[in-house]
Write a structure and sequence with these properties.
- By secondary structure, the chain is mainly alpha-helical.
- It has a domain of about 90 residues: Orthogonal Bundle (Arc Repressor Mutant, subunit A), CATH 1.10.10.
- Helix content is about 65%, strand content about 10%.
- The chain has a 3-stranded antiparallel sheet.
- β2 and β3 form a beta hairpin.
- α1 packs across α5, α2 packs across α5 and α3 crosses α4.
- The mean pLDDT is about 95.
Length: about 150
């Protein structure tokens, strides 16, 4: 099979996306550091707080974060030790588990969210116009749908 090398436009788009993602993650992690939450903690708590009952199956949480099963389990364990989340057995599936946000987790994300959202706005959202945001949403949906159809992350 012949290698299809990236042309300059393709290479610049790919490298720019990768660098932007790493640098945004670093900026957002630094901003959250004062809250006592890591960027990963924030992702877990944000997903759970978006659920009507504050809970999600471990597998659903992993899919939403793009994490492997073992990473979800280990990270949830660390968050459990800090009382940010709890695990509850699924009543309809004896092998399944829910991750549930605790009152401590609710307080932590409520305290961290205003600064985090402002940082997201300052370093990302407010730099783009509505058309660019819509285009980026369409681009990410295309790539994420493709990845999900090919066994995802």
């Amino acid at each position: 099979m012949r290698t299809r090398w990236l042309d300059e436009t393709e290479r610049d788009a790919w490298r720019g996306l990768a660098l932007m993602t790493r640098q945004l993650d670093a900026v957002l992690a630094r901003q959250l550091a004062g809250s006592g939450l890591s960027l990963q903690d924030y992702g877990v708590l944000a997903h759970l707080s978006d659920q009507p009952d504050g809970r999600a199956r471990m597998s659903e949480l992993g899919r939403s974060l793009g994490w492997e099963k073992s990473r979800v389990s280990h990270h949830v364990g660390r968050m459990e030790a800090r009382r940010l989340v709890a695990r509850e057995r699924c009543p309809s599936d004896r092998r399944g588990w829910f991750v549930v946000i605790t009152p401590t987790g609710h307080r932590a994300i409520a305290a961290a969210a205003p600064g985090h959202v402002e940082s997201v706005r300052q370093h990302f959202v407010d730099l783009l116009d509505r058309a660019q945001l819509s285009q980026l949403t369409a681009i990410t949906a295309t790539v994420l749908d493709h990845l999900a159809a090919h066994d995802g992350p």
